[in-house]
Amino acid sequence: MSKPIRFNAFEMNCVAHQSPGLWRHPRDRSRAYNRLDYWLDLARILERGLFDGLFLADVLGVYDVYGGNGAAALQHATQIPVNDPLLLVPAMAAVTRHLGFGVTVNLSYEPPYGFARRMSTLDHLTEGRIGWNIVTGYLDSAARGAGKDRQTAHDDRYAIAEDYMAAVYKLWEGSWADDAVVADAEAGVFTVPERVRKVQHDGPHFRIDALHLSEPSPQRTPVLYQAGTSPAGLGFAARHAECVFISGPSRKVIASRVAAIRQAAARIGRDPASILIFTLLTVIVAPSDEEARAKLADYRRYADHEGALTLMSGWTGVDFSQLDPDAIVEHVENEAGRSALENITRADPDRRWTVREVAEHVAIGGIGPLVVGSPARVADELEAWVDETGIDGFNLAFAVRPETFRDVADLLVPELQRRGRYKTAYAEGALRQKLFGGSARLSESHTAADYRQLWQALETA
Amino acid sequence: MSKPIRFNAFEMNCVAHQSPGLWRHPRDRSRAYNRLDYWLDLARILERGLFDGLFLADVLGVYDVYGGNGAAALQHATQIPVNDPLLLVPAMAAVTRHLGFGVTVNLSYEPPYGFARRMSTLDHLTEGRIGWNIVTGYLDSAARGAGKDRQTAHDDRYAIAEDYMAAVYKLWEGSWADDAVVADAEAGVFTVPERVRKVQHDGPHFRIDALHLSEPSPQRTPVLYQAGTSPAGLGFAARHAECVFISGPSRKVIASRVAAIRQAAARIGRDPASILIFTLLTVIVAPSDEEARAKLADYRRYADHEGALTLMSGWTGVDFSQLDPDAIVEHVENEAGRSALENITRADPDRRWTVREVAEHVAIGGIGPLVVGSPARVADELEAWVDETGIDGFNLAFAVRPETFRDVADLLVPELQRRGRYKTAYAEGALRQKLFGGSARLSESHTAADYRQLWQALETA
């Protein structure tokens, strides 16, 4: 049987995420991003569509490269205002039973001790449906919120991240034994003290000498997501990630990225097939091809090119406000910028892109490709993406929210189900079990397992 | 008309809060503290009982003074395991319309920039029902989770807290003008950039050079709660708090504490009546006095004296495991410890307390007094507390959860309503409006208002 296709919904607790300007569409509910109603409705739609997860992006700063300040970002609401993503999860968990929640948290600005408790709390409240998208940030403006002049250099951030991961793995995996909590009312023993140990972490960046505050949650360590494609990011993903988000303009480009990730994992002894890889993509689907094209044409009337260039400037570090709309976009010096730009341009190495064309592309679905058509046409496309690249599924951005996701759930999912390429029911168990089968806990081959028996060796808390 | 009586429910995201051992009672649902169901049910009970708020305590460490380690705390589940309180709020907000949420967050372990966004997010999602209980911590074990050897000295913590408050006031009150967000689809303007300003804070402990990430929420600054009774704590409360939590063993003691708080506020120019004061108390109510006494006797069968002394040791810094149960409790040297102990003993200066008697007292409702009886008897008592002390209401601890709160909502509240001493409906508007009338925003006489017009004077973000 062909590999099943998996869907994540790519969302953010803000107005304009990957499709700037679409908040102005009459059917779009982005203005309600700060109200629980929107999120409860969205969660119900996604669970109806058997999405594996809702993936919540986040930034802790402003896109202020365009024009040298945050004015354009504010005007176009490109990821500002932006509220905290974690706080959406408990309410959505209360109205769903299976939907997973992959939440972005930037470890540069969260002390590990309290953060570890937050994620354990969410894993308890969701009954094992929480994932963490590990990021180290890319905006200097976020660093200035934390009292620094600029963010830490890229490769140093990954060194700090390694220390951070060791600290939180110890808390999640190594502090409480599985049988620590007995809740024995007769004996008057809630927790057996000898089965809980202090974490003693004395790393280059973080120090902890305390037990974890939460009892073991269904998954202990949340499902680990990562999105780095730089050499340092790739090594980090190979060591830590269970799910990797990538993006690219063509199946050929994506196939090579998938191969690179799986090879990096294999090199350090992990089963390369044990990493699920999702690529960014936006689906515009309608009952017929013609209706889908008309829907896209309608959406494009609300696309916001300056908003798109504001995002691109933040992602690339290039101030697009300084360029003529008809100028050809030249080579970008910095690595992150080159990578973001090539996600658009690399599909056809011979094509030259103007600034205006880049803006038009980014304005609906960001740097990911658009797939437009009837359920049959879109299903054909997605099958080809999966079969030719080795990806496991898609991180679906929205154009109009929640309409884009409702269309996927109600039109595309049934078509994929008819083809036997999409599940017809959720698997039982925790998010990790739904994704990988087996146990709710991280596998023994994962680096976090090294910290699992730590509690047996340390002194009593 | 006599002053209305207000209720807060005193809760915590853990097993044993103020009544250690009662988790073993057959009707107690403490084991479900880590499940959403419990909290949704509780929220509905409290809203039915027209409680002003649910007050969530928190600690980020372990009560490890008793016996010199955390073993007793773990065994008796005295506030360990303990999950994050903020994450309970969104789910409860989704099933209520009026209930307020006063959440304890220790500013020693939360960088102000991300914390300010979290509280703004909650104020948005609750539509203006969030409050913050400002604490600086009292457990060295919490400091060790943050890589320190011990917590910062008491008075220094308040100096750091002053700097922290200035930073978050600037973010909440001074970054976005009220008319910054216009969401004008026609003009393509979500936020008017000129109406948002960067916060430039360069304090002794915290530095921020960034705009607030969230648009103005209904209350901007959450309702501010505080519980300090030391001289430094009293000064802090007088400057910042809108609601103060106190505790004490008798009406006489409470009356003098209320007077001290109101005088401290008046000295710095605040209207002393503008601070709402709640005292800790536990109500055991049943249809008749006899049934209430029987209920208490039944509860006492599950009381846990070692758990109580574990809490007392943490609060006082005195290791009660070293004392004979029949020994008289002597004078405690340190200020916090003396204050905690006097909350029990000061009602009758001539009475001597043994360790056993202290444990027995603390085991149900902590250091607060117990009021037991029929609705009429309890209502008489509570009226006397309010009328003789000048308090505004009670911070009600539970013995059995949620039974204690259900009894209050269903038996005591109707009695107080009949007497005209309790509201019969919630006021409309934000939590601040429900508590104080007037505006959802902090009053112009509050110190935070000094930062309100800051955005007019600073350069564009």
Report on the structure:
Two copies of one chain form a homodimer. Chain A has one domain: Alpha-Beta Barrel (TIM Barrel). Mean pLDDT of chain A is 93; it is low at 456-461. In chain A, the strands form three sheets. Chain A has an eight-stranded parallel β-barrel, surrounded by six helices. Chain A has a two-stranded antiparallel ribbon with strand order 5-6. A two-stranded antiparallel ribbon of chain A has the order 7-8. Chain A contains 16 helices and 13 strands. The first copy, chain A, is α/β, with parallel strands linked by helices. In chain A, 38% of the residues lie in helices and 15% in strands. The longest helix of chain A has 21 residues, at 154-174. At the A-B interface, helix 2, helix 3, helix 4, helix 5 and strand 6 of A face helix 2, helix 3, helix 4, helix 5 and strand 6 of B. Chains A, B: This is LLM class flavin-dependent oxidoreductase. Chains A, B: It holds the Pfam family Bac_luciferase. Chains A, B: Residues 28-392 form the Luciferase-like domain.
Describe the SSE topology.
2 copies of one chain form a homodimer.
Chain A: E1 6-12, H1 36-48, E2 53-57, H2 71-76, H3 89-94, E3 100-106, H4 112-125, E4 130-135, H5 140-145, H6 154-174, E5 181-184, E6 189-191, E7 199-202, E8 207-210, E9 223-226, H7 231-240, E10 243-246, H8 251-267, E11 276-285, H9 289-300, H10 305-316, H11 335-345, H12 355-362, E12 370-373, H13 375-389, E13 393-397, H14 403-418, H15 431-436, H16 454-457
Parallel strand pairs in A: 1-2, 1-13, 2-3, 3-4, 4-9, 9-10, 10-11, 11-12, 11-13
Antiparallel strand pairs in A: 5-6, 7-8
Helix pairs in contact in A: 1-14, 4-6, 7-8, 8-13, 10-11, 10-12, 13-14
